[in-house]
Amino acid sequence: MAPSDMQNNSNSNLSQLSRQDFSRAYMKSFWRSIFSWIRNSSNELLPFDEVLKSMPLRGQHYLGFRQIETAKIIGSVSRYQDFDRAFLPRQTHTRARWESIDRAYFKDVILPPIEVYKIGEIYFVKDGNHRVSVAQERGQIYMDAYIIEIDIPGTLDENTNVNNLVLTHEYVSFLGQTKLDLLVPEENFRFSIPGQYDRLLQHISVHRWFMGEKLNRPVNDEEAVLGWYRNVFLPLKKIIQKHQIMREFPQRTETDLYLWIIEHRWYLAEELHRKVSLESAAMHYAKQFSTRPFRHIRQIYHWIKKRIFKINKKAA
């Protein structure tokens, strides 16, 4: 066989192997997305710009060339939709570039260092997303990288997701406005979903107005916040705990339930044209909107059981 034919066969074999590697990585990504959906966990790469929006920045500086842990590369500047949290390919349009890098590994070609931003303990790829993906799939523990570090208060780690970053940013802002961390340091007012603290501030503002009407004088910030906490939030929290309503809403918080039950109470009162107690509203909300697995199946079962009992009773 001529040398050129041997070379062609070798290239053909490498192309086949890299196609298989990509297909395997792509299938892993598919199953990771399914399991992530079942577990209600994050499987997304962190988008660099979104993270920056959620963090107070103190500046940046160049760290230069270093080896970094591949497992700590969990974000990207521009390709966060093309790969999952493990940097497995999510899109088939990445195939050609991915396979070309995979073939370079087979040929022992030395690839240039990637470029990353470092925030806390994690890294965001500026250049070299496909190289990271292939390295992750091949089990490479370390990668060469040029690093720019973004300075922030605190730190981020491998468990960070955008939702938690936004929630933390919003919570810090809420505490800064209300001073609740100083007034009731033992209490927790965290939400499980972003964008809710403005509604909580509205509740405090409305309660301030009612307090002012009752006392016939202006009410300062601290009085309003403590009045809302002691007379509105805390009584409902005790009801939630008394009836163990949190069991009906796994992965939610007492502040989530507070807000939803308060608003549900208003809608119930409008519908029934009468006042509704906090306890009645809480129990009704839990019964109607429980997210606990199989809760509604059990409700249907008990309804059918009652119907059959009534039919048998009439027949007798």
Question: Which characteristics define this entry?
Answer:
2 domains; 11 helices; 57% helix
Quick structural summary:
This protein has helices spanning 3-39, 48-54, 95-106, 129-137, 162-178, 180-183, 197-215, 221-242, 254-272, 278-289, 295-315; strands at 46-47, 59-69, 73-76, 114-119, 122-127, 142-151.
Describe the structure.
The chain is an alpha/beta fold. It is 57% helix and 12% strand. The chain has a six-stranded mixed beta sheet. The model has no long low-confidence stretch (mean pLDDT 86).
Instruction: Name the CATH class of the largest domain.
Output: Alpha Beta
Tally the helices: what do you get?
A: 11
- What does the largest sheet look like? 6 strands, mixed
Q: What structural class do helix, strand and pairing data support?
A: alpha/beta
Write the layout of secondary structure elements.
Blueprint: H1 3-39, E1 46-47, H2 48-54, E2 59-69, E3 73-76, H3 95-106, E4 114-119, E5 122-127, H4 129-137, E6 142-151, H5 162-178, H6 180-183, H7 197-215, H8 221-242, H9 254-272, H10 278-289, H11 295-315
Parallel strand pairs: 1-3, 3-5, 4-6
Antiparallel strand pairs: 2-6, 4-5
Helix pairs in contact: 1-3, 3-4, 7-8, 8-9, 9-10
